[in-house]
What we know:
This protein has helices spanning 40-51, 70-76, 91-98, 106-109, 121-126, 158-167, 183-193, and strands at 2-10, 13-20, 23-28, 31-35, 59-64, 81-88, 114-118, 133-138, 168-178, 197-205, 208-218. It is α/β, with parallel strands linked by helices. Strand 8, helix 6 (158-167) and strand 9 form a beta-alpha-beta unit. The longest helix is centred in the N-terminal third of the chain and has 12 residues, at 40-51.
Amino acid sequence: MSDRVASARTERGEVVLLRRDGALELRVNGVFVMDTVHTETERLLASATLRAAVRTDGVRVLIGGLGLGFTLREVLADPRVREAHVVEIEPDLLDWHRSGLIPKTATAIQDHRVVFSVGDITEVIGAQPPESFDVLLLDVDNGPDFLVYEANSAIYRSDFLSRCAKVLAPNGTVAIWSADTAPELRAAMHAVFGNCEEIAIPVELGRARTTYHLFLSGR
Length: 219
């Protein structure tokens, strides 16, 4: 049984925030995106990547996809982070955060280090000066083979990854979340960066068991 907390219709379809068994769940066009219970991979997206950051302070992070805010919250827990630039394509989702509908990450939304941009991640990345960020964290869709929004397929291709490489500072790291293994994505990241580590994280969704994946490359 679920209750609808908020919903919005955009050119990309319907975005819905549900409450199910005391937890919040985000769905886009009827497809499960994330919830406030199974947050392991969203948090690991931040912590595993920041572990690779060599800077001792002043770390600049760009997060593609706000979601329910757990990646952002994990980023801000690192005292080295000077700025967290969050890019979210759905303004309604950002409004829901700002109005307090997602209390578990409300403090992160209000942190003075956070800068928000509403827009497409490919366009925002393309507009950044070279070597702008030490860390790029991309959790924009469910992965190249489970797209919620077809246009997001560009995120997993070499052209966009090459743009990511340009905005990374020396020794910078990029990480991409996927709902499943993605050999073509791994190959593309390896081709652009010369390296790619795949981390598999087992997750239990109710009675179902699955595995989410992180793909990390360093400049």
